[in-house]
């Protein structure tokens, strides 16, 4: 009996050792990196950390028989700081995947490092379509609306209403440039024209001179190719000049529900918003949002929802693959259907997650029935129309797969 017991124990130890050998350091480490104190902290920030924790809790805190660990960092919207944090995470803390990731410049820098270190990135903050375009990587997936999709929604909706002359106020970094470019293409495809543009630094406080220049252009649409506090500040100051109240429509191409909440419906009413996530769309989104609000005190943005969906899918893929190897897990993620709050989605070969996109009109104060009841859906764009195919993106799928091998 003693001999049998010893054999049984040794067999168990060998099996456990083999199982844990599939996981670096005997654990799965997820890094949540974002803006914790700057211009887009409201749309990600602490809420993204909470969303990641919720997904980990759903998994019971373990996957594949090993514990899940979360680490967090603030990249301050600076690419050099983002790369420095990630390098330390990869080399010393055993981080297997980094999630959230606002700021396109930071993400593009991290993509090079992630490919070098063979670690995964799941982007829910940055919006440049180039993340899954010519810069695509087998280790990177993009979980929220990109500049191509956002332009397809808002710019198409307004030009189809007959608003065909446009002026852009654009944040002067990669995301803003890409959003302006993609929206310009949609405007021109619908018979419209761009009559001018101005660019501003990230975290601009005074938009007066820029707005006056846009107003004097007499464009029917003044489009904000920006995000977070920049968008909110521009809209508030536009109201002081009467923009959006008479002959010119203000269009926020990358607006979040927290922006509308900050502005108030009196100011934001009538604005067209494109988003792949709205908390009150379905039973699935409401269930997630209700749980999130109890923890964070406000409804989730699409960035925070993207963090939750991405971590949930990643952990399922890790469990299926029985490893935290980035190439293997990303391969499994791409071949496994994605559950986005009860609605189906899938990951293309270039890492682009595709899903149906909603176009919404911000409600008038009299239409809002309860807190955070802000949007009215006016159109749905099918996933295959909202996002570029891998072939159209400029990403080479064959080259992408070769990098993993």
Descriptive report:
- The protein has 405 residues and is an alpha/beta fold.
- It is 46% helix and 20% strand.
- The protein is built from 16 helices and 16 strands.
- The strands form four sheets. It has a six-stranded mixed β-sheet, sandwiched between helices. A four-stranded parallel β-sheet has the order 8-7-9-10, with helices on both faces. The chain has a three-stranded antiparallel β-sheet with strand order 11-15-16.
- α12 packs across α13 (326-335).
- It is globular and about 60 Å long.
- The relative contact order is 0.14.
List keywords for this structure.
single chain, alpha/beta, six-stranded mixed beta sheet, 16 helices
Q: TL;DR of this structure?
A:
With 405 residues, this protein is of the alpha/beta class. Helix content is 46%, strand content 20%.
- The fraction of residues assigned to DSSP E strands is 15-25%
The description of the largest β-sheet is: 6 strands, mixed
Arithmetic mean pLDDT: 91
What is the terminal separation in angstroms?
48 Å
Low-confidence stretches: 1-21
Report helical residue fraction: 40-55%
Instruction: Output the radius of gyration.
Output: 22 Å
Biggest sheet strand line-up: 2-3-1-4-5-6
Per DSSP, the total helix count is 16
User: Could you say which overall geometry the principal axes of the C-alpha atoms support?
Assistant: globular
Which class of secondary structure composition applies to the elements? alpha/beta
What is the strand tally? 16
